[in-house]
Amino acid sequence: MKTLMPKVDTRDGLFHNGNPAIGEQGTQVKDVWLNNVQENLRDIQAEAHYVLIKAGFNPVENKQTQLYDSIVKIIGDNRKSATTTDKGEVKLNSATNSSSETEAATPKAVKDAFDNANNRVSKTGDEMSGSLRAKGFSARENYGAFEIFNSNETLRIEKEAQNFKFWRRVPGKSDVTNYMPLTSGRLALEDDVNKKVSKSGDEIKWLNVKREHAWLNVTSTAHGSSGIDFTNYNGRNAQVSIEAVDIGGWANELRLHATPPGENYDTDRRQHIATFSPIGDVWTKKYGWLHEFYAKQSDNNNIWAELNNTYRKNRYRHQHYPHHYNGAEVFDVPMADNGVMRVIVMNVNINGYAKVNLPEAFNGSCLVQATDVGGGQKRVGANIQNGNVVEIHNSGETGFQILAIGWYGW
Length: 410
Prior knowledge:
Layout (H helix, E strand, L loop, with lengths): L30 H25 L10 H12 L13 E3 L9 E3 L1 H12 L24 E7 L4 E7 L2 E7 L6 E5 L44 E6 L9 E9 L2 E8 L12 E6 L5 E3 L3 E2 L7 H13 L7 E5 L6 E9 L2 E13 L2 E4 L8 E7 L8 E5 L3 E5 L3 E13 L1
Parallel strand pairs: 1-2
Antiparallel strand pairs: 3-4, 4-5, 5-6, 7-8, 8-9, 9-10, 10-11, 11-12, 13-14, 14-15, 15-20, 16-19, 17-20, 18-19
Helix pairs in contact: 1-2
């Protein structure tokens, strides 16, 4: 296409009619300008013919829409959709779940996606007002997990079917796996979930608390007592119990309960057998409060010391006199540091009145008694003189047993 033709050669580049009344001439149309007009018109026609030819049309006289039709057809023939590598037309789409690579999102789709993202949890950290669920992310059915990880270790909570487990992985070390019991939301202490004890109540075969300063704690949250029950032979009821009981005044006592002999363990036959008070007193079902029956060790020590020092067994003496009259025996029983209780038993035969000598004497208060050991029919009187002579009043010959008791000191 030619460049723009020059304007008419006038002072303002415009045509003028002129004014004969004042002698002003009109604009002269010269051959140069007319040739320019002719050449540019033909050039425009040539351009229009080219458009028709490219559209596959032939010029039709008196038809005024051929140029428009040709342009529309050329545009239609050259239209193509855009791709990720080629330019082209892009179709708008308001869907937020489309995976097309030839369509463009509308502002509505962008807003929907923004609103959706704004309600999601940020990977860099966020807060949630509701619960978070994880569905299976592996090929295994009924499997879900959460992972928390950093450059040093990975922590994962997994659920597969009815099993929960918690494992920890540290680079260079074996995985550590702990199972969660189904009846509790807390981690158990062993690797096998079947070995866990539920906090809501369970059975165990063996309990071993092993650690430095080990301690087993039983806490009652609602009642004034707490304790431990023991059951043997898989009985229906506990057979022995240890119970801590609140007795008021912010004090507790310890009680023991045990099962006496019976035919079976089908019923609860426990009896309260012992109590340990908060001040150290002990009560038993058989004896009651023990301090009412038993002396303190210090008191026992004093008693034994007194017995050993004052009434020693080695100071007890027994002397037999087989030839003194019809036989006599002397018993010295320690009673004090300076004397004994002396007991003399002697057998004699007496005809009427007589005085007999004891095998040993008394030097303190004493008394004597004579008894008829013959027919048991004689009345007899006796008294002691000078600590070792017994005067007997009797009628006829009779056998007597003399018993003398008194003090002998030194």
